[in-house]
Amino acid sequence: MSMHKLVLVASMACCSTTAMGDDGPRLGRSIDDATVAAIDFVVLPNGEGLPAGSGDSVQGEKIYVKECVSCHGASGQGGIGDALVGGQGTLASDSPVRTVGSYWPYATTLFDYIRRAMPYSKPGSLTDSDVYALTAYILFLNGIVAEKDVMMADTLAKVHMPNQDNFVWAYRPK
Ligand code: HEC
After folding, report:
1. 70 lines ligand 1 (CB under 6 A)
2. Contact of 131 with 111, CB cutoff 8 Å
3. What is the torsional sign of CA 27, 30, 36, 39?
């Protein structure tokens, strides 16, 4: 038997007895239904999946000042985190500024993103109404909704983003 074959046989013997038992590689740990349910949510561009709850920009500003301003700056102007406001009309220029307001095609994605990922250091800590209020605030700062407009499943799905028509669908939601 060549040395190459010997090494291969030896390594197979090693792995079948130690790292992999009869019932698999034993990577990770099992997950229960409640844990899956807490992270198994998605909001589609057309608003499908938006939960109950509501909020406006006045409420959103208060939460923003506590939870977001340290990274995204006063009024969403940016800091160590992205600017969330401004840049409208710059996308076709030599210095495009891509923000939620100038670039993102769907307001519903803003809800999904904040709920899923923000605040950066403790995602999942906000209520759905907090997230609606923050969404309303960021849309208000971008001049897309009015200060008192209440964002909830129905109203958020109807918000038309300034750059929406510059995106083309590779597939269409139902
Ligand atoms: C500790 C810093 C920090 C805090 C606090 C924070 N963010 Fe962020 N945020 C970030 C970073 C970093 C990114 C970029 C993440 C990436 O690209 O993966 C980001 C990205 C975002 C984006 C996407 C911007 C884009 O154009 O891609 C949004 C929207 C956002 N944050 C909203 C919020 C809101 C709302 C809060 C408060 C509830 C918040 N963030 C709190 C650091 C932070």
Report:
1. yes
2. yes
3. negative
How does pLDDT run across 108-153, given as a tens digit for each residue? 999 999 999 999 999 999 999 999 999 999 999 999 999 999 999 9
Q: Give the atom of ligand 1 at the shortest distance from the alpha carbon of 113.
A: 29
Rounded Cα distance between 85 and 142, Å, is 5
pLDDT, tens digit (0-9, with 9 covering 90-100), for 157-170: 999 999 999 998 78
Residues in Cβ contact with 112 at an 8 Å cutoff, skipping those fewer than 6 apart:
42, 43, 49
What CA–CA distance (Å, rounded) separates 100 from 84? 5
In the reported structure, the alpha carbon of residue 51 is separated from the centroid of ligand 1 by a whole-number distance in angstroms of 21
| Cβ neighbours for 38, distance < 8 A, ≥ 6 positions apart | 124
Ligand 1 site, residue 136, Cβ cutoff 6 A: no
Cβ-contact 131, 119 below 8 angstroms: no
pLDDT digits (tens, 9 = 90+) for 2-51: 444 444 444 444 444 444 556 778 888 888 999 888 778 899 999 999 99
In short, whether 113's Cβ falls inside 6 Å of ligand 1 is yes
Cα–Cα dist 85/130, whole Å = 19
Token pair recorded at residue 56: 């406006």
